[in-house]
């Protein structure tokens, strides 16, 4: 089963996403980068709206690869009560040390690493480090929100190899990165655990716009249809 992740920015959007059928609610601030963090009070308000009906993740922000900075942000985000803390992994600094530092919070919240594929190669070394650190999953996303999707940066073979590496490590494999309706079928055929969306859910397709209930419902239907088709083949 592929789960559909909807990135939202406030309690109203969180409620809309739950009602429209999203499987996972992801909290982020698109005005502050690819993995921009929301203030703790907004995260807590979103959690009250979701009220346990869906798992909720939150990003810690687009941070430098500094272990102390990373660990502090992970603990701060986990303290809000979210189910999953999402951690961006990029080149520069010491990403392996950051992964190890983040792992100190794994008893407070589940951890998912996010590799920004247009900025950092999703190497087996990074995947293995996250598995060894007790992460539950690894996602690919894009850092430069310039109209190019994940599929513009990585071929189907490269994405399939990534999913295979993550699954072999015993983790959930997620794909995101400016995904559109046309991307759902080809990506679903690769068998990821999660497909994540923001822009495709928004009015006009711009990630900084408010989300549209009809667009979310359409993406949910498309993901479920793609899963059903793959099971028939």
Quick overview of this protein structure:
This protein has 9 helices and 8 strands.
Note down, in words, how this protein is organized.
There is one protein chain. With 233 residues, the chain is an alpha/beta fold. Helices cover 41% and strands 17% of the residues. The chain contains 9 helices and 8 strands. The longest helix is centred in the last third of the chain and has 20 residues, at 213-232. The mean pLDDT is 94.
Topology:
Layout: E1 3-8, H1 11-20, E2 24-27, H2 40-50, E3 56-59, H3 67-78, E4 84-89, H4 95-102, E5 110-116, H5 124-132, E6 137-141, H6 150-153, H7 156-168, E7 172-175, H8 181-188, E8 194-197, H9 213-232
Parallel strand pairs: 1-2, 1-8, 2-3, 3-4, 4-5, 5-6, 6-7, 7-8
User: How far is it from the N-terminal to the C-terminal residue, by CA?
Assistant: 15 Å
Q: Mean pLDDT, rounded to whole units?
A: 94
Gross morphology = globular
- What proportion strand? 15-25%
Key words describing this protein structure:
233 residues, alpha/beta, globular, 9 helices
